[in-house]
Amino acid sequence: xxxxxxxxxxxxxxxxxxxxxxxxxxxxxxxxxxxxxxxxxxxxxxxxxxxxxxxxxxxxxxxxxxxxxxxxxxxxxxxxxxxxxxxxxxxxxxxxxxxxxxxxxxxxxxxxxxxxxxxxxxxxxxxxxxxxxxxxxxxxxxxxxxxxxxxxxxxxxxxxxxxxxxxxxxxxxxxxxxxxxxxxxxxxxxxxxxxxxxxxxxxxxxxxxxxxxxxxxxxxxxxxxxxxxxxxxxxxxxxxxxxxxxxxxxxxxxxxxxxxxxxxxxxx
Length: 268
Description:
Layout (H helix, E strand, L loop, with lengths): L10 E6 L4 E7 L4 E6 L10 H7 L3 E6 L16 H15 L4 E6 L1 H12 L4 E7 L7 H14 L5 H8 L8 H12 L2 H11 L15 E6 L7 H9 L5 E5 L11 H11 L4
Parallel strand pairs: 3-4, 3-5, 5-6, 6-7, 7-8
Antiparallel strand pairs: 1-2, 2-4
């Protein structure tokens, strides 16, 4: 672990968006701004293992997506376009014209949707374990399961998709389990249904900022081959596969993810 200067100590704040408030964690006081967009069902704490290293020479901002964490009381239902507008609203609330945006899974879908609608707000884009097309039947099944069976029933299938078998009792998996059990079924369902609207495939062909697509070699939800296809639809993007890394990349073998992002993200 590297020594982290005092200027990178973590701070917390809340900001008002169009129809709700959310919470933001900041680490780093100077350097290039980086906005971190978490996965479905989790919250901004998902990025904690990466913050110390990545905040050296950068300003990191992790926020709670609507329907999650401190933004759990946001209106329902909501669309992917709403979530993308929230991303821009966070930038506005932070006084940032642009940022490098990193999105994992659902966060990657939100980031792509925002990049299509607001490309001028992006200095770079990193997509981790995400998709650029919807799977409506799968997403609807997950939404209905929470509504009919509750969140406890989501634990086993979700953790199996998110972690390798060796890590299902790890600290990261315990955090993910806590998030799931605390989640409102209505928010879980609203988020999955918003994913049915994903409409970005082929629409980033003219996207100019540097782009990285980061795949986990042990991802049970989005195979490296599928991630490579996403990269192929964004001309000029870089594809990288991390061996042995599962879907929730930041919570298992986070050092590999940190290294890849540290090499990709600008500091100045």
